[in-house]
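In response to reviewer comment 3 from the previous cycle, which asked for concrete evidence that the modeling workflow produces usable outputs, we include below a single protein chain processed end to end. The sequence was submitted unchanged, and the resulting structure tokens are shown without manual editing.
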Amino acid sequence: MQAWDDVEHEGDDDVDAMGATTTDGRRWGARLAGVVAAAALLCTGQVISGNAAQAAECPAPIRTVLDTTPATADRTVALTFDDGPLPQNTPDVLDVLRSSGVKATFFVRGDQAAAHPDLVQRIVAEGHAIGNHTWSHPYLDRLTPAARVAEIERTTQTIVDATGTEPCFFRGPFGVHRDPAIAGLAWERGMTVVDWSLDPRDWSTPASWSPAFQQQIIDRATSPRTAHPIVILHDGGGYRQNTVAALDDVISYYASRGYTFTDPAGRAFPSGSGQGGTYVVQPGDTLGSIAAGYSATWREIYQANRATIGPNPNVIQVGQRLTIPGSGSGSGGTPAPPASGTTTYVVQPGDTLGSIASGYSATWREIYEANRATIGPDPNLIQVGQQLTIPAG
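The workflow returned the following structure tokens.
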């Protein structure tokens, strides 16, 4: 497997002055493209409203390469994902983020974004930030100036075509973005260039499930030398289920220590919980997994949509538009178990251990350990109809 981001991390740069904004004409064109694309998305039903944040205009690019986020709060962390989107990885990453209520930044390859525009739409619809990671992941320092421009601009146009929004951030493949001749191309196009301060080296994953490697990812991702780390992870480039499995613990580490999850520019993501609105059902969704992203229980969502869903709350259709109540009495997900003892849960279509855990006072690892003999060696392989024991929190 190619070590796509296997580069030595260079020393931190001092932050320079803020750069100039893009031209008025380009901004007008971007807004017009946004309106047209948004209208198209609404017509095709590929839109989530409610807690899905509308992408804001990009701030003026910070004219240095960011190794850490600006200190906009006492503790900030930016989770970033490179090389996607890929259907075998990206939806799982998004599911974990949604169940945790955390937003991240996805540096997408243009060729992958063109192949999977639905995933780019979901990334933006669920409130995450998008970054430009070039079209084909080349070494930019080996290309002609014209070829560099084409790699960047073609990717930006693909993102705009899919979502109606432009990327605010750029990351060069292999970390090749410090040369002003390369970084300048991003700055001139309104993007801040983003490096990283923590590289868990998840790109070096074995091509199979490995708890030992997952722990390495967790350890490396949670060893910040600064109060404002940028963590580089991957949702593309190959087998990434070890990254998916480690993500919950990485998020828990920062959340439990009071870090604010931000984009690389230090901007906190808008909170969507409790805002209600509508949601378009995606492949693999259950009412429990949808509820995990809102301040509403699956029962409240079902009651608000009973006429649309019908008598069986387990039967929801991809593309179906659901009303999300504005506020709920629960924390989302499956109804909470009793305060003591254990309960059981019957696996539904589209469930993962992460989505199940989101409704209980137990982590997916705890549920897996309580059911290892039933599930087997791979916690990703759970069967519809399988009865799982849920340990008491």
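Confidence is low (pLDDT under 50) at residues 1-56, 327-340. We consider this sufficient to address the reviewer's concern, and the full set will be provided in the supplementary archive.
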